[in-house]
């Protein structure tokens, strides 16, 4: 477990400092102090390192978003959207390695992890909005899935425009998602 953690920490540092292309399995092994041949004992290839590192980020994001959603009264769609968008924006700003993995589309495994995460979050967000009376009970779950998909795509644009995420693009994403969800307001 210690060596796996060292590998993931080294990959995280390389992604943060030098970007995706620099975080090769060889470079990660060197950074972690593990011979390249031994790296394959812990991870069969670089994509497995990327996937495990993204899973670690997804767990952290889930905790942060859960705290934001449960720790706020969320009496408007704006407050509900902010409770998801702001923690994501802040997390991506603090963890550029996550941005490299999340939006890169470097492997199908990473894309699947992001889609699965978004699907779970969209379903949870749908339940919360219905429970709080912010959208009607007959709002299709698809509406929230699409809201997450649009938000995800616009975050991609925002973080391609600026490493800190372009605020104007994030604000437009927020406006689009809120305006769309208002069409389902209770």
From TrEMBL:
Keywords: DNA-binding. It comes from the Bacteria. Signal peptide: none annotated. Residues 1-61 form the HTH tetR-type domain. InterPro entries: Homeodomain-like_sf (IPR009057), HTH-type_TetR-like_transc_reg (IPR050109), HTH_TetR (IPR001647), TetR_C_15 (IPR041669). Residues 24-43 bind DNA. PROSITE patterns: HTH_TETR_2. The keyword Nucleus does not apply. PANTHER family: HTH-TYPE TRANSCRIPTIONAL REGULATOR PKSA, HTH-TYPE TRANSCRIPTIONAL REGULATOR RUTR. This is TetR/AcrR family transcriptional regulator. It comes from Streptomyces bikiniensis.
